[in-house]
Fold:
Amino acid sequence: MTQGSQHSADDPRNADIRISVNGVLKHRDQAVVSVFDSGFVLGDGVWEGFRVVGGHPVFLESHLDRLYEGAKALALDIGLDRTGLTRAIYDTLDGNGMHGDGVHVRLMVTRGVKRTPYQDPRVTAGPATIVIIPEYKTPSDETARRGLSLFTVHVRRGHPDVQDPKLNSHSKLNCITACIQAYTAGADEALMLDPHGFVATCNSTHFFIVRKGEVWTSNGQYCLGGITRGNVIALCRDAGIPVQEKPFSLTDVYGADEAFVTGTFAGVVPVHTIDGRRIRDERGPTVERLQALYRALVARDAAGRRRPE
Structure:
């Protein structure tokens, strides 16, 4: 078992990283937030994860779009505009000497410290808490070649009037319980269905299949607005690869020629087994082509970036 698409080898340099807590860089052993923080008490916050290539966070505008949209939906005042938050990210990278590749950043924003442990946002006592964690993390080459196993779980992706799956919130118990069911069944990640029984997404990545040269993914109604997902769909269209966003069932999945997942950290990762059905032993030609196209897109985005003034 590979521990999912997020699997990477431990890097000893991470023992001494500096983490930004409200603009102050602290050694990881001293980087803490209050037990009254809204994120700890209630999971009240939004977050983003992004890769750093050539010292630059790639697809940063898209990540910030999603972060600020989520914060607006939660009536959460981040307290920094996009320029200020971008500077804070670069300051964190600079403070760690991270000017190359192989870095992953987790940006977390919570509503801030509460006067008492209670859900009402009006008892928040101060500004938002902003934490930026940079780590040396490189996706596994073996995972990119051999792929993952998935298990379809009973935990569904719900309707937006219960908990909107478009929100990249700190409240991830829906995905966590799905993940637990998958790994206890011996799989790497969970495949999750929507309320109607069609395939929705995975617990931490987005899911695609390839059938007779066509790439299929869900209609997106019951999953996070994935940035890598969107980039891969656009790459398919630009490269002349037929792609559809549509409802499809597990029967369609089991009969697929190829399957893969997408995510910010690992990019495009093949899937070799789903619910005990072998899809293929290693990545197929469509996955290999999309991996190359995505690597080129990442490189172009990084090369076109400039540091904030």
In short: The mean pLDDT is 96.
